[in-house]
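Hi team,

Below is the intake form for Methylmalonyl-CoA epimerase from Saccharomonospora azurea NA-128. Please confirm the fields before the structure is written into the shared record.

FORM ID: S-0412
PROTEIN: Methylmalonyl-CoA epimerase
ORGANISM: Saccharomonospora azurea NA-128
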Amino acid sequence: MSLPRHRDAVYSPGMHEAPQPLDPLSSFVTAVDHVGIAVADLDAAIAFHTKHFGLEVTHIEVNEEQGVREAMLRAPGDTEGAAVQLLAPATPESTIAKFLDRNGPGLQQLAYRVTDVEAAAEALRSAGLRVLYPQARRGTANSKVNFVHPKDAGGVLVELVEPAADQPATH
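The structure came back. Fields below:
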């Protein structure tokens, strides 16, 4: 059986509609928060993205718990859209160092902004997905984060981010 060519395709209502989301989780996800890129040299990566794409650094920090140096970048004037997070290892044992050893630099994660990271993680666990931490951990700018195992998310490490109460909706 072959698929119809585009001009021969027939549309019927409901044919291409997405499946309905899990009711409990759909109320938690509010936006794509950021994409994370693993890099060996944070300063060089910042220079590349600012020079070639005109992105602006909106936040830099060292997250000792996760063993990373990180920077959040945005398009000029964009305060609400998805950010680019550059992640460099702060220690050779960090998850990012291991990722770089295994895969080299590149896209490392996709992060969804949620209203309640603990409730979102519980809804995903109830749906049979593996969530990496029993309780949320501190993320960028004191956000709370947890992750869905890549084997349960089509090979993508999915981060759930609940911004800190004293921070804007995005980092």
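SUMMARY LINE: The longest strand covers residues 29-38.

Thanks, M.
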